[in-house]
Design goal:
Strand order of the largest sheet: 2-3-5
Order of helices and strands: HHEHEEHEEHH
Number of helices: 6
Structural class: alpha+beta
Distance between the termini: 80 Å
CATH architecture of the domain at 62-167: 2-Layer Sandwich
CATH topology of the domain at 62-167: Alpha-Beta Plaits
Largest sheet: 3 strands, antiparallel
Shape: elongated
Radius of gyration: 29 Å
CATH class of the domain at 62-167: Alpha Beta
Oligomer: single chain
Amino acid sequence: MQKLTNRSVAVNRSPMTLAERAYLPALAKGLRITLGHIFKKKVTISYPEQKRPFSPVFRGLHILNRDEEGRENCTACGLCALACPAEAITMEAAERKPGEEHLYREEKYAAKYEINMLRCIFCGFCEEACPKDAIYLTETVMPSNYSRESFIYKKDDLLIPHPQKQEGK
């Protein structure tokens, strides 16, 4: 194998022919490429009618789970917020008050739980860090919004609906 010491390349400076000066070969090459693309299969998807297939490991919007009795699984341990590399999760813990035993199953609960979706990188670390299986990333694609505030999902937006409240409707 030879070692290259000089990296310069000699340029062929031969005079151009009449066809080359009229750009006919370049024009024909461009038309050939364009015509080749016209007859290929279309890559555009008509979105509302057709859905594109997603990867089986796709991570979408977050949800906060409830247990079988409709109580929140989140105990405000803060591990999801610590595991989040983008610092997209904010929470405030609160102590359970007397008479709220039917709402929460632990002594602490998340009084405030917010996820800033503009910061979230959908890595799934929050889901892995949660010891109570309270947070999950669904297969739902995040909808578009017109204001920055609408990308901050609060606890009420993230909690799945209460099963007993839905039966009563």
